[in-house]
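As noted in the main text, all predictions were made from sequence alone. Below is one such record, for Putative peptidoglycan biosynthesis protein MviN.
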Amino acid sequence: MANLGRASAIIGAGTLFSRATGLVRSLVLVAVIGSYGSKAADAFSIAAQLPTNVYELLAAGVITGILVPQIVKAAAHSDGGSRYVSKLLTLGSVVLVAATALMMALAPALIWLYTDGWNGTQKGLAVAFAYWLLPQLLFYGLFALLGEVLNARKVFGPYSWAPTVNNLVSIAGFGVFLLVFGGPFTAVADWDAGMIALLGGTATLGIAMQTFVLLLFWKRTRLHIRPDFGWRGIGLRHVGTLAWWTFLAVVVGQLAGIVQSRVVTQASGEASVTVMVYAWLIFMLPHSIVAMSISTTYFTRLAEEVAAGRLDRVAPNLDESIRAIALFGFGFTAAIGAASVPLSRVFTTDSDGAVPMAWVLCGYLIALVPFGVLLIIRRAFFAFQDTRTPFVFSFVQAALAALGAAVAAVAVAAGLLPLAFLAATVAFTQSLSTYVQLPVALRLLRRHTDTTALRTTWRALGRFAVAAVPAFGAGWAVFLLAGGPAGWTVSDRLLGAIGGGLVGAASLVVYIAALALLRTPELAIAGRLVRRLTGR
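Prediction:
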């Protein structure tokens, strides 16, 4: 347990630092191209989503959910798994190179697929950015492959710390852009070939460098890797059967994402796709620090226990990880919700965009806790090598999210919903779909393990929720005392960061005090985890 806590702390600290530098990267990017109301920023955002979306479609579910158990099993081989990993990396590299070349050839079609209501000039700018950004697909895939091998070999640190290199490279490159050209350039007509190349090339270089960093730590795996094209005999048929359902789950998720993108891009010039990107960035910050660091280490242990037949340890494993994620999740929900307006001001070039972005952020934020719990539940299915069942509840969520976006578009067309609230409504309906998805997933998990032991888990989450109510109230009171949406916390980007920190801190202090009054035993565990994280 001590080793598990130490690993979680290392991952959490690395993720915290990479996310912090990622925020700085985003701030510099806003200074270059704007955010709220910037059609040029919307063009860049759509192009920047393509490599990650295609990567998710091709490999993410397979790499993060299926291959870890396979690598853990391969460690029992006489060579420690070197031959299996060699074949795996060779196959993955070939597939990624071919897929990257194909997607670059299809760049104009991809931009057309993800946008609606844009004129030819804005689409042209998005395509130009896409040619520079789509090579990231290759490096994203290699980064995930190498990182999951490191995780499976219990070398947890580099995978969480490497993105910092990407952020530092991007910050430097975007800084050079500001020195050479200035900014922000929010109009499509402002951009020429040199500006596009510098911005897009810098973003891709950062992803390439974070992949290279993982190679510096490869010796710790004690694996001897060489190109190996003999792919027979490594269980590809078995992995392919598992991957098929994961692939379908990612497909339905991507289809829902396309519907959402085509709906939201209709609002380009107001709160649109770029605003959703930055709202999602804020939403993912606590999820990445807490949920990903905890779930990564717990998943490796869970995969080992299932492989060894210790099924009686599954429910306690789930209980520990869900409690840990939810304890932090409710606190961050209260703090970020109360500070949503000043935090949003940090990512806008003027105060007019702060409140619209805050609506989008809160639309996502209400699902922070179930989103983290679902990550644990999904990985539990993967530990049992069951990818078909996650497809079922993923399909439910994707269908509801797409339906919600379509209804929002109809409401705008009918004059029932202002265009300025379109993005916030899409975010809200996506969160509602998560609340439907979670109970479906839990009921389906009963096929593999007894979930009645989780009843005490839900009672613990109830205590966290109760503590979050006064925490949000305290933070919101501080925000109102500072002048509210017209106060000093929204007057400037720097003051927005300071104000958001003060509001969020007030919420967290009250949250901790409320947990203490409720005699929450998990509070001591959280304290030890935080001390490990800050100590590392």
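The chain is about 80% helix and 0% strand. Residues 254-536 form one domain. These features were considered when defining construct boundaries for the mutagenesis experiments described in Section 2.9.
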